[in-house]
Amino acid sequence: MTHRDLKLIEKCEAKLAKRKGLSNDAPWVREATSDTYRWCTEHTKTYNEHWQEEGRPSPYEPFPPEEYFGHMFELFDLERIVFIEKSRDLMVSWACVAYFTLHAMRVRQRGVIFQTQKAAKVVQLINYAKCLYEHQDERVKAAFPLSKAMRAQPKDSLTFAHGGYLKGVPGGADQIRSYHPWGYLLDEASFVVEAGECYNQALSAVKGKIIFNSSAGPGWYADARHDVIRIEED
Question: Using one digit for the tens of pLDDT, what is the confidence trace for 124-146?
Answer without folding.
Answer: 999 999 999 999 999 999 999 99
